[in-house]
Amino acid sequence: MNTKTKKVMNLIGSIFFFLIAGLLVLYILLEIFIPNTTIKVFQFKPYSVVSRSMEPVINKGDLVIVTNPNVDKLAVGDIITFRADIDYDGEKEIVTHYIKSKTLTEDGFIFTTNRYGSTTADTWGALSEDEVIGLYSFRIPKLGVFVDFIKSPFGIIAIIVNIGVIIGIVYIVKKSKKDKPQENKPEA
User: pTM (2 decimals)?
Assistant: First the structure.
């Protein structure tokens, strides 16, 4: 490759890197400050599965990817992720279950859900369309365990320590190369 081609390739690589890095930073900032809008901006969102209610279709520890739903097109049998007060403590948790029924009211759609293998509706009752977060798209087996780890305080500390160790190793290697005396090559 000539010099001009290398410069163009380096420029394209740099643009691609900064574009990906910028999107990643935007995603992280949205997740930190306004997590409910992430799926609307990026049209998808990952969630870790923390229960066995959908096994064997979706297993505990899997990472599910949900897409921004069009509630008009959701149908009975679809798998959705939603917010529900599953233990009746006033706080809504995130759940992924099947749609058992869908009813149109004057306020919008109302959904009931059920877990895998069950014919009865979930006990928390009907959900409004505002409580529906996303439509299940696919899962990545066991990746949810890793994601939960890196989100935990121990995982964050482990990442910071590893980054520090890597920076230290790079610094030591560069310093040792700099300090190494140049060998004199015999003249011909």
Answer: 0.78
Compute the chain's Rg from CA coordinates.
25
Which string of b and e fits 147-175 if b means at least 16 CB within 10 Å?
beeeeeeeeeeeeeeeeeeeeeeeeeeee
CA dist 30 and 82 (Å) reads 19
Nearest to 142 by CA among 58, 45, 20: 58
Positions of the chain with pLDDT lower than 50, given as ranges? none
Q: Are 63 and 49 spatial neighbours (Cβ–Cβ below 8 Å)?
A: yes
* Residue 183, pLDDT score: 59
Q: Is 52 helix (H, G, I), strand (E, B) or coil?
A: coil
Q: Which three-class secondary structure state does DSSP give residue 140?
A: strand
C-alpha span between 96 and 105 (Å, rounded): 23
Query: Cα angle vertex 38, ends 36, 41, to 5°?
Result: 125
